[in-house]
C-alpha cells in the first residue's frame, strides 16, 4: 500500500481526527458528573475558607468537609435589587421572572466561633479571564473575615497570585466602608503603614500584575455595592 | 536499535536482553533529564513539592506509555509526510485524557498543576521517544520504552521536589519533618528552594553528581 499517496494521507488524517475526537468526547461525557461534583466541592471549600472555618490544605476527608459545610453554612438566593431572599436557584428565579440571572446571586451565611459571617460571591475581569471568589464579612458588615479566589485564568506567578494565601491573608480585618466609597483597594506597590487610611482600607498590590490588581479592586467594589440592599435589610 | 531489523519471532523472549536495555537505559545512562537535558521546563516549574512531582511523574509515564503504544501500532500505516502531526494528535489526546481524569478524581492537584499538565504535550521527551523509538519498534518494546523514559523523568523530578519541599517548607508530603526545636534554635526555611532558580541549581547538582558517578563527560 502506498502510504504517501494524497488520497491515503487525506483518509488517514480524517480517520485519525474522528477517532481521537470520538474517544475524547466519550471520556468527557463519562467524567462530566464527577468533575462537576469535584468543582462544587472545591467551591464549598472556598466558601468555608473565606469564612475562616477551614484553612487552605485542610487534611480532613472530603466527607467530613462536606458535612461541615452542610452544618455550618446556609446559602440563599438574593435579589440584589430589592435585597429580598428568594426560594430556588438564581437561574430558576430569573427564568420564572424573565429577567437577567445576573440580578440574583447566592449569598452564604456561616456560624463560626467568632460570630456569624456573611459570605458574598465576587467575580469580574482580571487581565485575561474572569476571576471568581468569595469575600466574607464579619457580623458588623464592615470588616473582612477572609477572601478567596478559586477560579481564574491569570498568568501563573503574576496575576495568578490572587489565590496565594499569603496575599489573601492581608485582606483579613480590612474595613470595606471608606469615606469615598466601598470596598478594599489593591494598591500599586506596598501599603504605607504610617497612613491610617491605607492601613484600614488598602492591601499590597500584586507585583507585575497591575491590571489584575486593579480588576480585583473594581469588581470587589462593584459586587459589594450590588449587595448593599441585601446587607442593609438583613 | 539495529537488532529490530530482524522481525521478532514467536521465539523471542518477552523480556530479553534488548528489553532489559530499553528499560534500564533511560533510568540512568541515558536519563531524559539529567543526560539528555529534555523536559527541563516542567522539571523546574512543578517541583515545588513531592506530591505534585509524583503526580506529574505519573502523568508523564501514562502519556508516554499510551502515546508510544498507539504510535507503535500505527507505525506502518502513518504516512511519513504527516507523521509529526499524527504524533502530536496522539500525544494531545493522551494528555487530555490524563487531564480530564485528574480533574475528576484529583481536583486540587489538577488545579495546582494547572497548565503544566497540558504542557506535557510540548515536553520534548514525549515527542522525542515517539520519533526516535516508537516509529521503529514493536508495541511491547515501545510500551517499555515509554514507561521507562517516564520513570527516568519521574525519579529526577521527585528527587528535586522532595529536596525543595524539605528545605523550602520544612515538610515532606505535607508532613513536617524538620523538628520545631531546630526552628527555635534559629533555623529558617530556605526561600530560594521555593522558587524556580532553586530547582535549577538542584538540577545542576544532580547532573554533576550523576556524571561524577558515571565517570563520563559528554562533549
Which value, in Å, is the CA radius of gyration of chain B? 19 Å
Reading side by side through the largest sheet of chain A, how are the strands ordered?
Answer: 2-1-3-4-5-6
Beta content of chain A comes to: 15-25%
Query: Which segments of chain B are poorly predicted (pLDDT under 50) over 5 or more consecutive residues?
Result: 1-9
What pattern of helices and strands is seen along the backbone of chain A?
A: HHEEHEEEEHEEEHEHH
The percent range for helix content of chain A is 40-55%
Number of helices of chain A: 7
Protein structure class of chain B:
mainly alpha
Helix content of chain B: 55-70%
Number of spatially distinct domains of chain A: 1
Shape of chain A: globular
Describe the 3D structure.
The complex is a heterodimer of chains A (234) and B (219). Chain A has 234 residues and is of the alpha+beta class. Chain A has one domain (40-233). Chain A contains 7 helices and 10 strands. Chain A has helices at residues 6-50, 62-72, 90-97, 165-168, 196-201, 210-226, 228-233, and strands at residues 73-79, 85-86, 104-112, 115-125, 130-137, 144-151, 177-178, 181-182, 185-186, 202-203. In chain A, the strands form 3 sheets. Chain A has a 6-stranded antiparallel sheet. In chain A, strand 7 and strand 8 form a beta hairpin. In chain A, helix 1 (6-50) crosses helix 2. Chain A is globular. The N and C termini of chain A lie far apart (77 Å). Chain B is mostly helical and 219 residues long. Chain B has one domain. In chain B, 64% of the residues lie in helices and 2% in strands. Chain B contains 11 helices and 2 strands, in the order H-H-H-H-H-H-H-H-E-E-H-H-H. Chain B has helices at residues 17-24, 40-45, 50-74, 83-105, 107-113, 115-118, 124-132, 139-169, 180-184, 191-194, 196-214; strands at 171-172, 175-176. A two-stranded antiparallel ribbon of chain B has the order 1-2. In chain B, helix 4 (83-105) packs across helix 7. Mean pLDDT of chain B is 84; it is low at 1-9. Chains A and B meet through helix 1 of A and helix 4 and helix 5 of B.
Amino acid at each position: 500500500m502506498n502510504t504517501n499517496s494524497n488520497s491515503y494521507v487525506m483518509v488517514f488524517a480524517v480517520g485519525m481526527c474522528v477517532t481521537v475526537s470520538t474517544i475524547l468526547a466519550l471520556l468527557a461525557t463519562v467524567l462530566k458528573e464527577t468533575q462537576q461534583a469535584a468543582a462544587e466541592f472545591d467551591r464549598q471549600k472556598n466558601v468555608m475558607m473565606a469564612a475562616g472555618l477551614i484553612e487552605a490544605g485542610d487534611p480532613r476527608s472530603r466527607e467530613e468537609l462536606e458535612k461541615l459545610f452542610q452544618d455550618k453554612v446556609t446559602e440563599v438566593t438574593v435579589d440584589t435589587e430589592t435585597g429580598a431572599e428568594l426560594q430556588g436557584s438564581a437561574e430558576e428565579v430569573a427564568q420564572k421572572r424573565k429577567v437577567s440571572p445576573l440580578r440574583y446571586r447566592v449569598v452564604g451565611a456561616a456560624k463560626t466561633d467568632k460570630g456569624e459571617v456573611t459570605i458574598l460571591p465576587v467575580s469580574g475581569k482580571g487581565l485575561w479571564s474572569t476571576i471568581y471568589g468569595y469575600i466574607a464579612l464579619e457580623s458588623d458588615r464592615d470588616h473582612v473575615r477572609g477572601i478567596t479566589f478559586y477560579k481564574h485564568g491569570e498568568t501563573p506567578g503574576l496575576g495568578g497570585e490572587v489565590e496565594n494565601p499569603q496575599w489573601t491573608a492581608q485582606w483579613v480585618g480590612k474595613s470595606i466602608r471608606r469615606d469615598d466609597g466601598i470596598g478594599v483597594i489593591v494598591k500599586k506597590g506596598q501599603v504605607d503603614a504610617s497612613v491610617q487610611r491605607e492601613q484600614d482600607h488598602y492591601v499590597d498590590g500584586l507585583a507585575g500584575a497591575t491590571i489584575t490588581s486593579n480588576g480585583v479592586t473594581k469588581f470587589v467594589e462593584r459586587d459589594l455595592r450590588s449587595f448593599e440592599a441585601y446587607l442593609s435589610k438583613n | 536499535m539495529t537488532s529490530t531489523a530482524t522481525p521478532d519471532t514467536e521465539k523471542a523472549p518477552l523480556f530479553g536482553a534488548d528489553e532489559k536495555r530499553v528499560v534500564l537505559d533511560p533510568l540512568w545512562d541515558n536519563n531524559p533529564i539529567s543526560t539528555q537535558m529534555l523536559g527541563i521546563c516542567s522539571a523546574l516549574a512543578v517541583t515545588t513539592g513531592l506530591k505534585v512531582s509524583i503526580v506529574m511523574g505519573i502523568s508523564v509515564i501514562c502519556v508516554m506509555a499510551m502515546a508510544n503504544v498507539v504510535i507503535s501500532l500505527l507505525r506502518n500505516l502513518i504516512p511519513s509526510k504527516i507523521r509529526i502531526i499524527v504524533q502530536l494528535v496522539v500525544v494531545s489526546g493522551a494528555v487530555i485524557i490524563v487531564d480530564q481524569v485528574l480533574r475528576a478524581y484529583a481536583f486540587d492537584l489538577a488545579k495546582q498543576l494547572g497548565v503544566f499538565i497540558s504542557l506535557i504535550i510540548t515536553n520534548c521527551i514525549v515527542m522525542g521517544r515517539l520519533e526516535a523509538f516508537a516509529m521503529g519498534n514493536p508495541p511491547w518494546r515501545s510500551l517499555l520504552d515509554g514507561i521507562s523514559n517516564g520513570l527516568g523523568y519521574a525519579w529526577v523530578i521527585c528527587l528535586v521536589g522532595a529536596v525543595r519541599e524539605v528545605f523550602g517548607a520544612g515538610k515532606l508530603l505535607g508532613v513536617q519533618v524538620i523538628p520545631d526545636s531546630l526552628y527555635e534554635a534559629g533555623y529558617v526555611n530556605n526561600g530560594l528552594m521555593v522558587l524556580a532558580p532553586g530547582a535549577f541549581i538542584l538540577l545542576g547538582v544532580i547532573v554533576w553528581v550523576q556524571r561524577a558517578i558515571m565517570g563520563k563527560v559528554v562533549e
